[in-house]
Every structure is written in structure tokens, then in C-alpha cells.
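Chain entry —
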Amino acid sequence: MILSVVIVNYNVKYFLRQCLSSVFGSDRTLKDGSRLELEVWVVDNDSVDGSVEMVREEYPAVHVIENKENVGFAKANNQALVRSTGECLLLLNPDTVVENDTFVKCVDFMHEHPDAGGLTVKMVDGDGKFLKESKRGFPSPEASFYKISGLIKLFPHSRRIAAYYMGHLPEDEVNEIEIMPGAFLMISREAYDKIGGLDESYFMYGEDIDYSWRIRLAEFKNYYFPETHIIHYKGESTKRGSMNYVYTFYNAMSIFVKRYFSGSNARLFNALLRMAIWLRATLAWAKRIGSRLAIPLLDFGVAYGGFLVIKRLWAELWANNVDYYPPEYTYLVMPLYVLILMCGSWLAGGYDKPVRPWKIVKGMGVGLLLLLSFYSLLDEGQRYSRMLLVAGGVWTLASNLLIRLTLSAAGMKGYARNARRRGSVLVVGSEAETHKVKLLYAEMGVNADMVITESPCEAHHLQDLIRIEKVEEVVFCGADIELKEIIGLMAALRTKGVEYQIAPKNSDYVIGSNSILSREGLFLDELETISTDSSRRNKRLFDLASTLLLLLLSPILFWFQQRKKQYFADCLRVLGGGWSWVGYRGRKGVFSPSDMIPNASTEVQERMMLRYMRHYKTTTDAAILIHNLNNL
């Protein structure tokens, strides 16, 4: 066996399918005329999206290792590496696409360079943009400082300041480098036999840096080989702004620092690293929170401003005194009115995307009715003005709808009047393949103006079509265009505001960096209701309310618990948001839907989980919680 490919997968079925399609569709003839023998290993870290079933059904030649838990990137790779037989070993991410000649070119290069312990290639993202992490340097304190501080962006080609990405090396030139990315990391059998597998102390992140450096310490060389490309979609496993990412990344880098730095340098570097990473995470968190609060704050400001104007006009007309209403009404009661109306809208899904105006109307209508009902129960001296309440409520509703209409007109994502409406889509391929794409879009209910062009097609022609037809999305038909040509076209076009997608050969889906359009998706909105914003919100509200109730009743319930040590621990986990009382795929929970039927078979448990996700109701959570009330 010449090449062993190892792919670690975690809940990215469609990316994995496209990756395997490119792997098995690659050329097999080496430079000396011999045939490239290939074995492929897929190690699945307890995916719940049907990845394993897809691989076994569509790619029976693949060796599958099915883990029952997420054991991490390093350990999963080692499970396959220790069983592999290839002269060259390749760690490949599932969210990558290789060119037809990638494997043969890389293996030929490894054969011609016996000093090569590791090899990586030029990577581009889903829009054809070069990924700087294709070639990296050793993350010394100085290099890390320049990267984290942002100075590297000011001097991207400096040997010293851009050392983290080895910016002084041309992106299209073969060179020796220090660190290779884990997305495409080829190793010689000789190097593997000498240094062993990946360090399993790393769960995710950092293992590629560690392994690359160990290759160099074993007196082998790492090469950057840009004579072939791969697409790396990136970011499918974690969100870089999340605290989970920060925690995992910091732990990985801490392990690396302790291992390769010593004494005061290690302590200083670790402290600086911790400060810088948490600072970046805090800024990312603040940015995310700010983006979520921007529209509610705008709603509140406009609504409250309208309340003030209406109050002044009504005071002049009705009482002939602009100061008729007391300050507490202006600065306490009116803001409370607005907040209650906005909460009604939020609970009804008025802040979900895509925006549905009727949800805003329903939520605020219920909120206004509740306010009027409460108003009627107040003493006469506390009833400031029913007319102001009604007029202000109508204004709050009208201003909310007007803001959304303005955002829709401005083309802001998530606020379009028709969420299934897309701009012009340019499909590049044969008549048969473009017909399949049109049919898929129609079946998915996606409205778009289709612009069709035959392949092969020059980049300048596509550029003209994009400009003239105001194209927002380009779909390349993989059955008609080689991946090498697709990557070249994406890199040549690079038009701002245009997304690039691929319709893989012999498939019924279209895939890109930001979306996956498939026939299976027809059922997601209807079946996996727990994934909707409203269901997640209702589930979180139930968790909060039930946890507060359990804490309130703890002096009584605590003594009936079979696991007394866990009672308050579970309450705090759920209260903090990391856990839910009832877990499901992708969400940790104290209990599971299958707890309703003890000792159920695996098949029954799976059916119960699917039913729970597809028909989610808070009453189901309540029933499961009550069923386990003595086992918290």
C-alpha cells in the first residue's frame, strides 16, 4: 500500500461525502507509471447525523472506526494510523476537497525527497481565498505576540513580524516550512515509525503544531508544496468566538508551551498567552452580544421616543399642561410598557430570523392585552392614561414593523420579506447537470433567477455575467468541471458579495462555505423542530423556570433524592446554560428521552430521540423531569 488517508469525522456528513468523492475520484497514475494504491480510513467520533451509515452504504471500501464518544482529534487519528499500511500517511479533514492530481503529485514529491518527513499543500477556502495557515512558523513568544496583537496584518510579508505565517515565503513556491496544518498533513512512514502517533494530550487544536515540530526534531524536513490545491471550508466543528473554543485552544497551547519552553520563559509566555486569548475571546463575545442587542436597542429607543412624543401631545390636548404626568410615569412606567411589549414579541418569535411580521403582531397584541388587563386592576390614582397605553402600544408595533421594513429594503441578511428568495444564481455546467440544480432549488422552495452557462467557461466571461446579471451565488457542477478548474475559477473571480457552491458529481445536494442545500433539508424544518429558534427559546425558558422552582423547593425535595450530591450540581449546570434537564443530540442533559423506558434497546432509544427532536414540546420535558424527580 502506498498511501493511507485518515479522516476524522464529527457531524459533517455532507462535507465528508464530498471529501470522499474527491478522494476516490482522484488520479492514480504516478510519475513512474505505477499505480497509486490507496486505503481510506474514516474515524467517526460519535456523530449523530448519519455519517457512518452514509460511508458504509456509499463507500464500502472505506475502513470505518466508529467511536461511541468523541475521543478528540489526536486519539481518533491514532486509532487509524496504528492500523494503516501505507508508505505515506495523510491526515485529511472531512471539510476539504482535493484536486484530481493532489495525491499523485504529493506522493511523487515525497518519493523524490527522502528527507521529507511531512508535506502539506496550498489551501483555499470556499470562496477561493488563500489560507495563510497553509504554511506556518514555530509559534515563538515573539511570533505569537505579532499575530495576537494584529501587527502581522500591517506587515504580512515581513520575515520577522509575519513569522507566524512565514509571510516572507511566496504562496506559490515550494519551500521548507516549520509547521503544517492538520487539515492536510502527509507523513512518511519512516518519520511515523520514528516519532509515533499524535500526542493524545491534545483534544483539539495544537496537535498539528506539536507533531510538525516533532518531525523536525527527528531531523526530517516539512515541506510546503503549492503545485496542487485543496479547498478547506473551515469552521465546521467549533465557533471561534465561543468560550468552549477559547478553553480548548488555551489548554492546547498551554500543553505546547510547557513542553517546548522552560523556566521563567514558559511561565511568562503562558501568562501572556492566557491574557491575549481571553482578551480576544472577550472582544468576540462582546461583539456577538452587541450584534444581538443592536436591533432590540433600536426598537426600544424608537418606541420609547414615540411614547414621549405621544405623551406630550396628549398632555397638551387633554390637560393643556405638558407637565401633567409625573416623572415616575415618564421614566419608569413608559419604559416598562415598551419592555413588556417587546418581551411579548420575543416570546412569540418576533426576533427570530427570518423575520415573520405576524409573529410581532401576535406577540405585541398579547402583550398589550395583558397590560390593559393589569391596568384595569390598578387603583384609580395609578391609572395614568389608558389612551396613552393604547396609542403607545400601536406606535411600538408600527415602529417595529417599520424598522424591519427598512432593514429588508437595505438588504440586511435575515430581514428579507421572502426568506427563500435569492438573487440571481449562476450555474456553470452542462444542460443535464444545470437542470438537476434547478430542480433541487425548486424542490427546496428557493426562489432564484437562474443564469445558465455551459462549461468550460473562461473566468472573464463569468465575471461579465456576474456583473451584468447581478449574480449573488455561483454553482459549479462537479460532474462537468474538474475540481482543479473550479478552484482556479474561484481564485480568479473572488468577487465581493458572491458565494461559491459546488454541486458534486452523482449527488443531490449543493454545498458551500455558508450553506448546504439538499433534499434531506426538505424535512428539517418540519421534523427537527427542536433546532428552531422558538423551540430552543422555549426549552431554555423551561429549564430556567423549573430550575428556580427546584431550588425553591430544595428544602423538601433534597431529602427524597437518590443522588443527593448531584441535586445542586445539576441545578447549577442547567442554570448556567451548559446543560439542559433533557439532553438531545448535540446538547448535554441530565436526563434523556429514553429515561421514560428503562433498559430500552438501542433501536428504541434512537426512535425515541428522533421523536423527541421532531415533535418537541415543553410538556415532554416536564414529563421526563417529573418522572425522574427523585433522581436529580
